[in-house]
Amino acid sequence: MPKGTSRYDEAALQGRLWTPRCLPPRIWCEAADGSSVVLSTGVSTWNNRGTSTTSIAQATGANQPAYSPADQSLACGVSKYFDLSAITMLGRSAFVVVKMSSSTSDYRALMFDGQISRYPMIFNTGTTTFGIWNGSFQTSGYSLAASTKGILYTEATNNGGSSVWSQTINGQALAVTVSNLNDVQPNRLFGDGASRPSGDISEFIYTDLLSTRDRQLFEGYLAWKWWDRLGQVNPLPGTHPFKLNPPLIGG
Length: 251
Known about the structure:
Largest sheet: 8 strands, antiparallel
Shape: globular
Number of helices: 2
CATH architecture: Sandwich
CATH topology: Jelly Rolls
Distance between the termini: 20 Å
Mean pLDDT: 88
Number of strands: 17
Number of domains: 1
Helix content: under 10%
Order of helices and strands: HEEEEEEEEEEEEEEEEEH
Radius of gyration: 17 Å
CATH class: Mainly Beta
């Protein structure tokens, strides 16, 4: 490998790097490749590279997020968000790579079910605490500093009609956020149509429930892609299996 090539780039060049193509998600939108976004006033469509036909789009020019090629992200500020056909969260999981908005004057919404006003991924008002809104704010205790980039994760298991929602940030231990919450079916991403900016979004993945090992593969892929590849120290804990090396196919 050429001198100065990172372990991420080395594995990619050798065709050994594990990516979501190895475990295809239902929705996979990433901003590292500019061809994945369709521009109008802002981003009118964020192309879905996953297995479903669900589209991530915003038809109204005034509500379209801006795309930054330099930062490889979509700026989801006040009233800048995407619409999508409602997706179930029971038996599903989702990742978001976001540099959180510095604003703490209101909720910062990542996923929103406008039919029942529920938020399966949200930061609480006036704080940096991550959680779920189901009529009141629920949290497993994880937080992300304002203007800081992180990997957010939410999953919802369905055990005989009794659901358990769990979350984590940056590959830490998965923790229960709330139990016995009915299904939430988000139809908006990275905002709710009001003045609740989520921040700069780099990647969104929506998939089936994952084993611990498979969740860690996705976390390793995202950490090495959005930190190590850019010459930054990834935020995974020291005990994470992909803290020091990127995930490899068959590894």
